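Here's what a typical entry looks like (Prepilin peptidase):
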Amino acid sequence: MNILQTSIIFIYGIICGSFFNVVGRRLPKKESFATSRSKCPTCSTPIKNRDLIPVFSYILLRGKCRNCHQRISPLYPTIELLTGVLFAYSYIMFGWSIEFAGAILLVSLSVIILVSDLLYMIIPDRLLLFFLPLFIILRVLAPLDPWYASLIGAIGAYLLIALIILISKGGMGGGDMKLLALLGILFGYKIIMVFFLSTLIGALVTIALLATKTVNRKQPVPFGPFIIMAALLTYFHGDALLEWYSGLFFY
Ligand SMILES: [Zn+2]
């Protein structure tokens, strides 16, 4: 690990994060994210270039619009920082390797989904379709053992969630099903672990949200963020988790 390279990747991640914010907010509304300028959601004033520096601008403006002084969502700097941290962590974990490329792809997809699922409860199809060929190329270059584990992971995840949707009539949606199938290409058989971890995290977080009355029983909680958390955990620490878990039973 090299401190300078890690710092550069961290800053690069923060810059990517500010782009992912825009994609996550505009893609579900079918707005273009390449041409139109960022505007204040309250007063619609275009945001000046000097106020578009990730994280810094938010701190300098104390989280308020320069023009109308309305609060800017803390989700913006949170997402930027999160992307920076996860990019840097990917490098620390994998160095310059094909696994690092996979981690960057997974983190990018994750962060965009986090934004769009938290704000609109939508995992956009166009986003999944964008990442589909990238995950396939990655697994052609660095196949799992056996190579068809990717295929079984994708199809298995799709059928499993389809069955759950049929039985439970809610909880999970079509977006979750497609997301898990996409991740199946990356994870292969380990997609089972992603699935179980996501339901575990989902249950724990939902209980916490209900107990603290942050949400009520009728309010739907988006499931995408739980899949994302489970996927990141499995990608970075799946083997260690599995070892620890089996250690509980077999030693
Ligand atoms: Zn404003």
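Residues 1-138 form one domain.

More examples are in the samples folder.
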